[in-house]
Amino acid sequence: MSTVIDNAPYTAFHRRLAFACSGGPLLDGYILSVVGVALIGMQPQLKLSTGAVSLIGAAALLGMFLGGAVFGVLTDKIGREVMYTADLLVMTACSIASFWVTDVWAIVALRLVLGMAVAADYPIATSLLAEWLPVKQRGRLLGQQIIAWYAGSVLAYVVGYVSIQLGGEGSWRWLLASPAVLCAFFMVIRRGSPESPLWLARNGRGDEAVELVRRHLDADVTVDELLAGEPAESERMDAGSLRVLFSARYRRRTLFCGLFFLCQVAPLFAMLTFGPAILGAFGLPGGTVMDTLGTGLISLVFLIGCYPALRAIDTRGRRPVIIWSFALMIVPLMFLGVWPTAPSLLALAALCAYAFLCGGPNVLDWTYPNELFPTSVRATAVGFATSVSRVGAAVGTYLLPMSLTGLGIGPTMLMAAGLTAVGLLVSALWAEETRGVGLQQAAADAPAERARERTAERKPVRV
């Protein structure tokens, strides 16, 4: 089963749309990472306790839980384009307001709203992008959205390093306000981005959908062709329905997407938010630019690890990549847990190895939920998976400083290894293979049916 969009030639239009959609992930990486640098100056100036620091680190993640759950549903109900820039306006306002904060609760409130706005962008942008991409480029370009996340994280540490060098610890206010510059840039880039033709066709606006495909893909298509693979009218699902995600047809996919995402990002976010504290526990000089540069290096390796994974998901397949990645990610975490007194440079190397191996799950974070669910609940599924993952990330970020203080670095790393092992188990049991499958076919078919179809295609015809 194929569609005009699945088989369309890859053009400059797709590249522009992918770049425009990358704004949300880039801002997420920047906003969540820059606070780790800002805390260096913020903590002594505002006299923050360990609990307050943990709360500030977790606030944006809690906001992402709320934003993903709510705005994914709205995106499926009212459209991708309608909400496409509103979240950037909210991020701009909250970032500017952060410059003037004077107490911990104001910071927490603003970062909570920032998190909601960032999470809104994931279901909006990734579902819109998935519904325009040819099948051969879908995995790579959806996976590249996470590269934008790490680019934002690396940028945050570069900006943080320069700010500390030039302005000292008092530059933390400028760091918290700096995302406004990126928001303004992507608001300009996103102007004129089109609505999803699949969403339009499914919601009774077929003429608009046909015209958009003709204008941007230079192809003639009918509404019936756009809806090929969608559930029949008698089986039509409520748009944006969480109930559909937990129906017998999609329950396993919903649990898989949420749980593997959670097991991957909980250690990751804690590591990036409190990277200087982790490296300090391994003996790297704390309170200096060295721990900031060390955390920036780890962020850069997270980014580098995504590139071979992007190639592998299209050559080897989604399922083997996610399983082997989780299995190998356990090794450096176990090493650090068993040897908590490892020399600081060796500990940094192990953390970099973990970061590199994270590339597999990273590039599948938004690929899998976009591929495994139909148009009517695609954004809802992305939003739900994001929400579940951020619950784990928020808990991990909140507890990490307390764990380092109360249990020490060794047990903390062992707990991270245990959570990664859960991700391995979930992937081994439930990961499906969607490589080379049309978007609507991947969402509609059971994996067993796809396997039978591929086997039948490979069988020689007897004469």
UniProtKB/TrEMBL annotation:
It holds the Pfam family Sugar_tr. Residues 17-435 form the Major facilitator superfamily (MFS) profile domain. It is a multi-pass membrane protein. Residues 447-463 have a biased composition (Basic and acidic residues). This is MFS transporter. Keywords: Membrane, Transmembrane, Transmembrane helix. It comes from Streptacidiphilus pinicola. Belongs to the major facilitator superfamily. Sugar transporter (TC 2.A.1.1) family. The chain crosses the membrane at residues 17-40, 52-74, 86-108, 114-135, 147-166, 172-189, 255-281, 293-310, 322-339, 345-364, 376-400, 412-431. It is found in: Cell membrane. GO terms for cellular component: plasma membrane. Residues 442-463 are annotated as: Disordered. GO terms for molecular function: carbohydrate:proton symporter activity.
